[in-house]
Amino acid sequence: MKKIRRLTALVLLAAFTVVAFAGCGAANDAVENPIICISMNYGDGASDGTGTGTGTGTGTGTGTQTPTPTTPQASTPSASTPDASTPDASTPDASTPDASTPADDSGEQGGAATGAPSTPEEVVNYYKECYNKIATEASGATLTYTNNTNSPDVLEVGGLSSIAGTLMGMFLKESQPNTALTPADVAPKGVTTCNLTPDMVAEATCTDNGDTYTVHIKLNCTQDNPDINPTAGSGKAGTIVDVVNVSDITDAAGSMIDFTDVQNQYFDTEVTATIEKSTGHITELKTISPTIMSFGSVSAMGGLLSLDNARIGLTYENHYTIAY
User: Fold this and answer.
1) Helix and strand numbers, DSSP H then E, in the chain
2) Where would a tag sit more exposed on the chain, N or C end, judged by fewer CB atoms within 10 A?
3) What's the CA gap between 322 and 183, in Å, rounded?
């Protein structure tokens, strides 16, 4: 009988609790006919044992333990568990640079601004800047190699072969190796400011050798479209190599030979320079300048020997070293 009263009291207590909970929920949530779910926890005590328990639904005596009603908890997400829809602040965003990672400054470090010149215009401007330092900063120069040849193999002089030989002897003579020069004697001789422009160039490259650059420039004058009678510092060929002026020919021939319509036709003119990166100093310079010396007419011995349209092919190659 005591067990029945105890069980009845517990059931009534549970019922009051449910009613109170439902009333509170209705007041707070304004939900009509709320559905309350009650789960019962059952013990597995023996029917003839004595059990001691704490809290509602336990008793002392024999029989089965009284089930304890529990109220389900709302499934509120734990604040410590990140929501899949919300980015975790502790995880770096791939689009946000990490302060510990150096920024990419390749745009400032690479390219012509800090590296080797790459475009023809950059190469030409760099070469001019370095060449101009010869006049202002060089202390001396040396002509280390010179080779003047009948190339291209053009010798159209007819019966004036002896005269042609004399002319070629004038312009194919070689200087002694290791001839000391002043900075002003470096090709083009007498030029202190390079007047080369990018529109004169067929090829312009710059090779990085570590401490030095090798700059190679070839002009766009060709045998079919030559640079005719350039002077030192002008035309196309005259901006980078020594050139032979018409006056040089007539002065050398003197009164022995008469010429008309003299042309020095330069083509495939090129220069190669070794340049120190740290100073911009040209330390080695090589020039190659093929030309065809053309004459409308040539006469000698008072007109006893004469020829129209004579042509002689010549190529001049010179190497220099420059000290600062």
Assistant:
1) 5, 12
2) N
3) 8
